[in-house]
Structures are given as C-alpha cells and as structure tokens.
Amino acid sequence: MSAPNNSMVDKDAELVAQWNYCTLSQEILRRPIVACELGRLYNKDAVIEFLLDKSSEKALGKAASHIKSIKNVTELRLSDNPAWEGDKGNTKGDKHDDLQRARFICPVVGLEMNGRHRFCFLRCCGCVFSERALKEIKAEVCHTCGAAFQEDDVIVLNGTKEDVEVLKSRMEERRLRAKLGKKTKKPKAAESVSKSEISEETPGPSKMKTGKPEETSLDTREKKTNSAPKSAAAHGITSGKAAKRSIADSEESEAYKSLFTTHSSAKRSKEESAHWVTHTSYCF
Fold first, then answer.
1. Pick from 170, 169, 157: which is nearest to 36 by CA?
2. What is the pLDDT, as a whole number, of residue 248?
3. Residue ranges under compositional bias (Basic and acidic residues) (predicted)?
4. Average of pLDDT values for 257-280?
5. What is the pTM of this model?
6. Who's near 21: CB < 8 A, 6+ residues apart?
7. Rg for the chain (alpha carbons), in Å?
8. CATH code reported for the domain at 6-85+96-184
9. Which of 8, 61, 100, 257 could join 263 via S-S bond, C-beta 3.0 to 4.6 A?
C-alpha cells in the first residue's frame, strides 16, 4: 500500500480548516456563524471582537480587512447533518470531534457541506444550500425560506481564486453604488431642510392673517384698552367745545332777543320802571 501523497493530505487539511474553523480566530465554528462577501466563514463573536479591537495588527486580520462593519457579514441559516456525531461521545475528553463527516448539509438535495461539493448562501436571507440545488431547481426565490433574490445575492462559500476575484469585484461595485446613493441623498435632504427654513421665515398669507385665538384675543383687548382713554379724552374735548358753543349761542340769542319789546328782558315791572316827574315853570 503506497503512502498518501503530501499534496493530498495538505488539501484535505485545508478543506477541514476552511469548513470547520473560523477564519479569524482559528477556533472551531460555533453558532452563530457568519460569512463575508468573499465567502469566508467566521464565528460572529470573533468578527465583533475584530471590529472593536482596531489597534490589533494580527496576521489573520488581513483576511478580514474588507470587513468594515457588522453589516458586511451575513448570519447563516445552516441545516444540521443528522449523521454527524460531533463530540457526543466525548464525555472524558479523550476523543476528537468528528471531522470526517460534515456538520451541515444542503436542505434541498442532502449533500454534505465538507468542501467536496460547492456550497453558496444568499445575502438577502442567509440560507445555505449546494450549488447543485441552485442549478437543478432554478427559481427566483430561496429554496428554503422563499425570499426573492437576484444573481448578485448568491455568494459561493470557500470558492476558488477565480470565485474570490469575481466576488471581490461585485463587492466593490456594490459598495460604490451604496456610497453614491448616500451622496445623492444628502443634497436632497439639504434642499428639503432649506425649503423648510424658508417657509418658516416667510409664512404665507394664511399664516399672517390667522394666528392663535389666545394671541388675537389678547391683541384686541390691548387695542381696546389703549383706545379707551383716547376715546374718553376725545369725547371730553368735544363735549367741552359743545358746551362752550351752546353757552355762546345762548348769550348771543339772549342779546339779540332783548332788542325786541316783546322779549321778557324788555318788559319791566312797575317797581323797576322809573317815575317820570314833569314840572313846568308856570306852576311856581
């Protein structure tokens, strides 16, 4: 029996590492498991720790340098493999995890997710299934949850160098579109703010005429109270002038009427009238 080829051993070890261990922490994959836009697998807590610890310059951090926020990864919805025993029999700690069988399978055709078959996930929902299921059962909705997806949403897991290059170009185009979309939204928001400010500074005719009932009532009350003294003073002046005019008119009328003998002032009583004494020279 010939010895196994070293290249084959290395390939198998690489497949085991890719499909069972986190790309960042090199620890075994535990739920929640996430994948990036280039199709690499991570433990979610490792990604969060990586994003929080910006000062760390780890060699493994270069593999996740394209992850700028938690939004750049998708939490995967994986289907467990019922044939995988895992560490169920490892009660004493003297057994290794079952790495010969895959922990997860395709929910559509039942293929194991161990690197021997191409698998992919959808960015829109996170469901994972084999590429064979995607090709054999062509649909515009997810085979697992029914969510609608496009070709850009399909990400190959642990693909070849060519796959990674295609995914990288798609990722850059996607982020550029999102960046341009934000820039176009900002001027629109600024315009809406400026319009609202202008409308507030220059109210329309309806706003100028109509106000709050409390304010209008207060204004009318103030106007009435302010106008009341003015009206009273004006009324006093006019009444004084009228009284003077009436007195003057009465005096003028009395003087005019006294010229006539029929007026009461022209008639005098006997006591008031003087006695006329006539004398002649021949009486003496």
1. 157
2. 52
3. 211-225
4. 53
5. 0.61
6. 27, 28, 29
7. 54
8. 3.30.40.10
9. 257
